[in-house]
Specification:
- The chain is mainly beta.
- 1% of the residues lie in helices and 52% in strands.
- It has 1 helix and 27 strands.
- The strands form 7 sheets. Strands 23, 24, 25, 26 and 27 form a 5-stranded antiparallel beta sheet that branches.
- The longest helix has 4 residues.
């Protein structure tokens, strides 16, 4: 596994699990990365942990683990919060599972686990389960970055299997971290069918939002309409979701943020164009062509953004990047990273 910082790649761990599911976030004067670690000393069904490494400004530190037990842990998500970091991931609540266990029996064992490090990510407490039920809880996303230490986790839930269908749609849930404890999960949306995506941003304990996509069934169209939807937190309750009237017919890979003005915003790929939208004013800044997905963003204090996404190329996938200049409000020509 390696992370690109500036013009150089910095490999920091080898012999990783095939599906590494790497996630990373800036914070605490450096950065933190987490991934799925395959402990080959354990039998299959007890072998997957969440590992991490910190960037101290000049080098990646020796990897350590957030979890180290026989529960299967996957799909980590990270965010900075106050003086520490918040992590969430999918966790099989049974301490051991048979490798041959069929999906219809395995999936209902998937819960959402969380841990908060108040030591700048150098050590982690025993994880806490946000869910413990017979449903499938999956695809967690952590949002943080607020100065008051608040954060939140958004995830999907399904009564039978991962992936919403007409007969078994997904539910979108959220839980908030107030600096000392987690709130009970709250339902943001129901009836999610197909490939829905979600993202979130936190400004403070009284200002946060969740953005998610919803695929609409349109029987007369080959390509489905995918809308962008918004739910906001005002310090005491979540608003009912509303549809954001974007210029795109189909919204893909939304990423939430707050602009230097304080306005909520989303970067997304819409109709094969990378786009930044101010959710308060409705202004959009279309950028380069982007036919891939899995957008990830990073922002500095002056409003400059970098967006990285996957792009299909001959023979596989490439990573491409474009920078949004906050002063001139324009996207750069995309650069191929890999």
């Amino acid at each position: 596994v390696g992370v690109a910082l500036g013009p150089l790649d910095h490999p920091f761990v080898t012999n990783v699990f095939t599906r590494t599911q790497l996630t990373a976030t800036p914070g605490q004067g450096g950065a933190l990365a987490a991934w799925v670690y395959d402990d080959i000393t354990r039998p299959v069904g007890q072998n997957l942990d969440i590992a991490f490494s910190g960037w101290d400004g000049s080098r990646w530190l020796a990897p350590d683990r957030i979890t180290s037990d026989t529960n299967l842990d996957t799909a980590p998500s990270l965010a900075s919060s106050g003086s520490g970091y918040v992590a969430a991931w999918q966790r099989i609540k049974a301490a051991t599972v048979a490798p041959t266990l069929p999906p219809e029996q395995l999936d209902p064992l998937i819960e959402i686990a969380v841990a908060v490090s108040g030591t700048g990510g150098s050590s982690w407490p025993t994880p806490t389960l946000l869910t413990d039920n017979g449903a499938v809880d999956y695809d967690p996303f952590v949002a943080g970055g607020s100065t008051d230490g608040s954060a939140l986790v958004v995830w999907k839930q399904n009564p039978s299997r991962a992936g919403g269908t007409e007969s078994s749609p997904d539910i979108l849930l959220v839980s908030r971290w107030d600096g000392s404890g987690w709130s009970a999960p709250a339902t943001l949306s129901t009836g999610l069918v197909g490939y829905s995506q979600h993202t979130a941003a936190v400004k403070s304990s009284v200002a946060a939002f969740v953005a998610f996509t919803r695929e609409l069934a349109v029987s007369t169209e080959i390509t489905p309409v995918v809308t962008l939807n918004l739910a906001t937190w005002n310090g005491s309750s979540w608003s009912s979701p509303t549809v954001v009237p974007t210029s795109a017919r189909a919204v893909d890979s939304p990423q939430a943020l707050y602009l230097p003005s304080g306005n909520p915003a989303v970067v997304f790929i819409g109709d094969r164009t990378l786009t930044l939208r101010d959710l308060a004013t409705g202004q959009e800044w279309p950028g380069p062509a982007a036919s891939g997905g899995l957008v990830r963003i990073a922002q500095d204090s002056t409003g400059n953004l970098v967006a990285i996404w996957e792009e299909g190329v001959s023979g596989g996938l490439a990573l491409r990047a474009s920078v949004f200049d906050g002063a001139y409000q324009i996207w750069s020509t995309p650069r191929t990273l890999t």
